[in-house]
Amino acid sequence: MSCCLRVTSGNRLLIARRTSKILIQKDEVESSPNRPDMDRNPSPPTSDDEEGEKEDSIGSTVYSKHWFFSTLTRLIQFVTEKDKSQPAGGDDEISVELDEDMENDICKVWDMSMNEEVALFLKEFNAPEIFLGIITKSKCNRLTEICVGILGNMACFQDTCVAISKNEDLGAVLLLLMCDTDPPTLLETTRLLLTCLSQVDVMSTWLERIKKRPTVRDNLCFIMSSSTNGDLLVKVGELVDKLFDVDEELMIDWINAGCQETGTSGNDNEETPTVLGLVPSLLEAAKQLKNDSPEGLEVYMHTLQLVTTVDEGIQSIVQFQEDAKQTWEFLFDLTCRDLCQPGDPPLIIQEQKIILSSVLTVMFVMFASQTDQEYTEIRKNLALIGSLTRILENQETCQRKNQGKRIPDQAETEENVTEEDFHLKILKDVCCEFLSNILSQLTKENIVEALKAGHITEETSLCALRTLLPLYATSVNSFIVVLGEADPTLAETLKKDTNEDS
Question: For 349-375, b where at least 16 C-beta lie within 10 A, e where not — what string?
Answer without folding.
Answer: bbebbbbbbbbbbbbbbbbebbeeeeb
